Write the structure tokens for this entry.
Amino acid sequence: MITWVKGGEVVDPRRGTKRALDVVIRKGKIEGMLPPGDFSPSSDTDLHIIDASGMMVTPGLIDMHVHFREPGEEYKETIASGSQAAAAGGFTAVACMPNTNPINDSRSVTEFVLERARKANLVRVYPVAAISKGLKGESLTEFGDLKNAGAVAVSDDGRPVTNTELMRRAIEYAWFFHLPVISHCEDLDLSNKGVMHEGSISTRLGLRGIPAASEEIMVVREILLAKLTGYPVHISHVSTEGSVKFIKQAKEEGIPVTAETAPHYFSLDHTAVIDFDSNAKMYPPLREPKDVEAIKRGLSEGVIDVIATDHAPHSPLEKDVEFDKAAFGIIGLETALPLTLALVREGVMDLPMAIAKLSYNPASILNIKGGIIEEGKEADLTIIDANREYVIKRDSFRSKGHNSPFIGFRMKGKAVITMVGGRVVWKSGELNPSS
Amino acid sequence: MRARMYRFSHKDLLGMEQLSVSDINMILDTADTFMEISSRDIKKVPTLRGKSMISFFYEPSTRTKASFEMAAKRLSADTISLSAADSSMVKGETLIDTARNLQAMNPDIIVLRHPSSGAPHLLARYVDAGVINAGDGTHEHPSQALLDLFTIRKKKGRIKGLRVVIIGDIAHSRVARSNIIGLRKMGAELTISGPPTMIPADAESLGVKVVLDPAKALKGKDVIMILRIQLERQSGILFPSLREYSLVFGLNAELTKGAKKDVIIMHPGPINRGVEITGDVADGPSSVILDQVRNGVAVRMALLYLLIGGGRFDNLG
């Protein structure tokens, strides 16, 4: 069978182009990319035509930072429900953080995650293994064995590696296996059990504040460790003006750092907390308008390489409680694309650059396939209706978590088809329609 | 009469932030009319007969709890009071479940004190009864601010244009926050003072001047408000010792001389004598600390009356 994605505009993040091209897919791979009208299949071809006129065709989106909660907290999310949320959001691949229960610090847990992903059979799921055993920050996990089992990176995400010596050795040792090291930057002492950004709003609400410096101190430490070792470090969820400044400076000096931010850090600021809305509680916290502007600048100038969601589902048990007792984190897979497209309309980035941060760049950092739309590549594609307008509703999420600060927001732009290896896994509100 | 033209339209009192200047004047004027009841032989009117108040204190309290109950009883409302120790919280019940259970008993008003900032706001979303915030974490304590405003207005005849200084642990004080909001709304000029470790981030955004040194801060002031140093904050990180705190930031008679001659000195209580304020100043002629407590009952009667009873002045017996 041949799939003919017809009449769309192909966004190529690697070349930075946007062209009207038909995409011809056979046996899960892209067989050809042809100007409209050039493809003339013979009449006896078993042909599946996808009408993409008026749509954008992009490489499948890749989210390098999600929490799928399995094993251990299946009531919040499972690898199956998380995969559904990913497909519905236009993502064809995700990287799962290791802070599950048990923690992914051993081959058996990595294999379990991959097995569950195979059963879910929707999107590509890449496990990220822990840097330290039990996320305790004391001793390294078996990077070699974990990599062989399928881990694509290491991170103690959710917690910083507080021991600087251990972080140095992790960066050095990981290089041998070409495993990216992903850092959650936070000085826990300085965060001092804070629950939101320290500033005028925390002062007004009487909530304990997390200063911007709590993140920035660790960003600077990781930069210095990357410089010391000469090996790369990837900085997770950048949220402050200072972090952007330090990362920019490091990149200019040729220090091998890469960085990601999440859509909420360029879409919302700390005023979202004003009604004690626990759906506006996450780490790092929503910052100030000047930080939001700096994040946008960082994206536009290429200081921030990746947009990742930090998709962190929680149930009402963790969220419908007093603000200071509520869990940190929000879901993001089903809102990331429209929020990113809003930046494109605002002129922060052009479309190929925005799509690069959602596909090609994370694929490069993680050394995984995807992010490229070319002949011979896997047919992981996202077809986007950039003009579709809708309101985010609490019950419209495929994720088990409904903890989103964007409920009630009017959005523009939606993934209408998500295709993994030539197979349509999401089509206009329907999951796995071909099976 | 102002009361005829204006309607107090709140169901809950969650913070000073929600109140307009007219609301505040209405509460203070109403409290004025209730002052007299507390001096009667029979200190009871039937105004809120058949109404019920649940006071729910997740944190220890003497003054506020007693004051609300006294206020409710003087208005003939039925009162039930619960504390953290006898609540289901110790059995693991969430605040929302507790709220639903309380609501099922159909009270008219719930008075909540809670260690988490924003807890009354959460409660108010789940109950039909009115909710009064009797202190939430380090956020607000509106009834305290209202009784402070009432006391200032009684003593000084006005609030607008007065120069007020608040000294102490501003960052962790709900009394400070509510007073700052209330006093700013009523047109007072505000200075805050204390160790830099206890001044909140972006303090100026609250519309106050920050003068760290108390001696300078209280110069020429009409009102000095001293905050209680919470002994549980003695970790040695915010300040080294109570001894040093009292030496550098405590209010004593000598320091008080820098303020206006007719200055009034306020403290929300309970006092740590010899720490944030010396005994002689607390008991001295400028102190209005006990007036605050006395006025508290009338202000809380006014609040219950306005929130439950609606905007008419009948049934005052």
